[in-house]
Amino acid sequence: MRRKYSRRSLIVSRFLIPFSLLAALLAACQPAAATPDVNLALTAAFETAVAQISAPTATPQITDTPVPTATIPRTPPALPGTYQTSMLKPEDLPRTYVTDSCQYIKNKWDSTKAAPGTVVMVVMHHGINKGEASGNDVTVNEHKKIMDSLYEAGFQAINMQQLSDFMYDNASIPQRSVIFIVDDRHFAEYFNDHWRPYFDQWGWSVVNAYIGIDERTDLWAENAALSAEGWVDFQSHGYIHNIPISEGSTDEFIISEMGGAISSIQKYMNKTPIGYTWPGGGFSKRAVEIGPTLGYKLGFTVNERGPVMYNWIPQADAVNDSNPMAIPEVPAGNPLMTLPRYWSTNVLDHIDTVRAIGEEAAAYAEQNKAVELEYYDIVCAPTYGPIP
Ligand SMILES: [Zn+2]
Questions:
Q1: Separation of 277 CA from ligand 1 center, angstroms?
Q2: CA 148 / ligand 1 centre spacing (Å)
Q3: How far is the CA of 347 from the centre of ligand 1 (A)?
Q4: CA atoms of 88 and 40, how far apart (whole Å)
Q5: Ligand 1 geometric centre to CA of 128 (Å)
Q6: Strand ranges (E), the chain
Q7: Number of domains in the chain
Q8: Which end of the chain is more exposed for a tag (fewer CB within 10 A), N or C?
């Protein structure tokens, strides 16, 4: 939003320019102690000038701006571009989604919120095999190595609500965060064996993208017991799950898949999911539109693009050779509903990249801080207030 100057206030400004010059001259040859007198004299002259204009509507322009500097409209500086990096594939470009630049700058520099450069590695897990790994699974030893490596690199695990609050409002989370999303149904043993130790040691939670269709009530019961403990965060992964949503899916099917999963989790776990993991990685523009109307805040693909930051989500415009299996997210129109995920099998190769992207983004933000704050002061502060 841009402050508007009426023709009338421009007239007032014209009257005031000579007084500003006078102020500058006086200030230049007076010791500091004389300043209050100068201001008084200026105020009197200012009021005289205003009185000569029969323009009562001009008054608010004058009373809320100090004499004399702010009476000359300040031109807001051009805002810097989004942080770019060569550490991702060239087609996986960071997309922004906060359209209000004042709100973005306010959230970004609010000292009570996440520091610029706060980065989240979103990880997709499937099986963790006690024997040899196959397909998308990892072995128990690989899993341990992933967890230890992330911990040693300074990462901490967050849950879905924390990620949502961060992505929407830049709410405070650890500067290096990781969210583990385990797809599909598992026995409680899976969580007790492979995830509980990290909750006990470091307070790390894990998300389970659960399938809504009710086949085994005993399985629901043991997962519901984990949900009640709080550290396994159950979210949605479709209702029938085995038919991925595609551009050809009807609204009826989309609503039954996405809405059905909410109903099941509400029924068995007494909680309302806000994260939707697209079964089979399939989504459509229509499903991305419908999801938020059902209550979803975030959606997750199987596309490995990069980490995410506040107002920064790497996505592709089109199918491309660097990631030919990945459905492009940009045409679906809502980056928040199509967040990328790293496959657990590839996590170890990317920890350093994620850390470096966070550091680079923090440095880029720092470099642009003065310009953004000046822009905020001129354009935003009158309506958005000071940045906490
Ligand atoms: Zn699945």
A1: 8
A2: 26
A3: 19
A4: 59
A5: 15
A6: 93-95, 119-125, 128-129, 138-139, 156-157, 176-183, 206-210, 232-236, 275-277, 298-300, 313-315, 342-343
A7: 2
A8: C
Residue 337 in this model has a pLDDT that exceeds 80: yes
Q: How far is the CA of 238 from the centre of ligand 1 (A)?
A: 8
Q: What is the CATH number of the domain that holds 153?
A: 3.20.20.370
Ligand 1 centroid from CA 18, angstroms:
72
State the distance from the centre of ligand 1 to the C-alpha of 155, rounded, in angstroms: 26
Q: Tell me: pLDDT of 180 over 60.
A: yes
- Tell me whether residue 380 is in a domain: no
Q: Dump the DSSP string for 198-238.
A: HHHHH---EEEEE------HHHHHHHHHHHHHSSEEEEE--
Per-residue pLDDT, 28: 37
pLDDT band with cut points at 50, 70 and 90 for residue 30: very low
358 in the same domain as 270: yes
- The verdict on residue 83 lying in a domain is no
Mean pLDDT of 331-338: 98
> How far is ligand 1, taken at its centre, from the CA of residue 348, in Å?
22
Average pLDDT over residues 37-48: 42
Please report which confidence band the pLDDT of residue 4 belongs to, taking 50, 70 and 90 as the band edges. Answer: very low
What's the CA-to-centroid distance between 278 and ligand 1, angstroms?
8
Q: What percent of the chain has pLDDT over 70?
A: 82
Distance between Cα 97 and ligand 1 center (Å): 27
Average pLDDT, the chain: 87
pLDDT at 15: 40
Answer yes or no: do 69 and 113 share one domain.
no
The neighbouring-strand residues paired with 157 are 178
Average pLDDT over residues 111-133: 94
Quick: pLDDT tens for 343-360.
Answer: 999 999 999 999 999 999
53 Cα–ligand 1 center, Å: 72
For residue 23, how far is its CA from the centre of ligand 1 (angstroms)? 71
pLDDT at residue 244 in the model: 97
- Residue type, position 35, single letter: T
Q: 359 CA to middle of ligand 1, Å?
A: 33
Can you give the residue range of the structural domain that contains 162? 93-367
User: 172 forms bridges with which residues in the sheet?
Assistant: none
pLDDT digit string, tens, across residues 192-223? 999 999 999 999 999 999 999 977 889 999 99
**Which residues touch 207 (CB under 8 Å, ≥6 apart)?**
159, 160, 179, 180, 181, 182, 232, 233, 234, 235, 275
